[in-house]
Amino acid sequence: MSTRLALNYKGLPYKTEWIEYPDIAPKFKSFGIPSHAPGTSNYEYSVPAIRISGGSYIMESLAIAKALEELQPEPSLHLDNGYTDRVQAVAQKILGALAPIGMPRIPPRLLNPTSERYFRETREKRFGMPLQELAKSDRAGENAWKAAEAPLQELKGILHEHEDGPYVMGERVSFADFILAGLWRFVQILDEGGDLFERGMKIDESIPKHYEACKKWLERDDH
Fold first, then answer.
1. What is the DSSP string of the chain?
2. Which pTM value belongs to this model?
3. Which fold would CATH assign to domain 84-217?
4. pLDDT digits over 155-171, tens only?
C-alpha cells in the first residue's frame, strides 16, 4: 500500500498487475529478483515488486521507495528523516497485535480461491491453528487490543512530536506517512462494525487528522 501511495504522490505513471499467492515465488524467480535475506521475512518472496524504467525489478516497499527517489527525486519522500524506520517498526507491531482479529477476514474478502487456499495453509502454520480458530481464540478480541496498546501509544507519541502536523514531520510529507496511511487503509478494509478502523481512529485525534491528510494519495487504489 505504501508503494502505491508513493507512486501517486510522485505522480509517476504505473500499471498494476495482480498475482496469485502461489505464483509469487516462481514468477519473481523468473524475473531474477533476489529473495529476502534469511531471517528478514516469513517468506522467500513477497509483494509488492515493481519494474522500473530500464527493466529492473525491485521487491519490498522501502527498496522500491529508494528506487523511486532516484528515478524522480522531487517531490521527495524524505527517506532519511529518522522516521521511516520508526514508523515501519511501530506499524508492524500494531498489525501483528491486531492480526488475530483482522487476518481471518482476509481470505473471504480479498482473495481468489487459489490464493485463499495458499493463504490459509501458510498462516495456519504460522499461528499454529486455522484462521477461523484464531479469530475465536484468546489472542483475538480485547486481548488483541491490549497487545496493541503499547505500539499505539508509541505511534501517538510520534505524531505529537511535531504539533503543527498533520504529517509525521509536521507540514512536510514523507514516506513514513505513507507507511502509516497504508496501515490504516488496510485496517479499514478489514473493519467490521467499527471494531478495527473506527476504534483505531479514536485512540487519539492526531491519528484521523493524519489519515485525512493522506487520503488524496489513496484515491487511486485498484488499478
1. -HHHHHHHHHT---------HHHHHHHHHHTTPPPPPTTS-SSSS-S-EEE-TTS-EEESHHHHHHHHHHH--SS---TTSS-HHHHHHHHHHHHHHHHHHHGGGHHHHH--HHHHHHHHHHHHHHHTS-HHHHHHSTTSHHHHHHHHHHHHHHHHHHHTSSTT-SBTTBSS--HHHHHHHHHHHHHHHH-STTTTHHHHHTS-THHHHHHHHHGGGSS----
2. 0.94
3. Glutathione S-transferase Yfyf (Class Pi); Chain A, domain 2 (1.20.1050)
4. 999 999 998 889 999 99
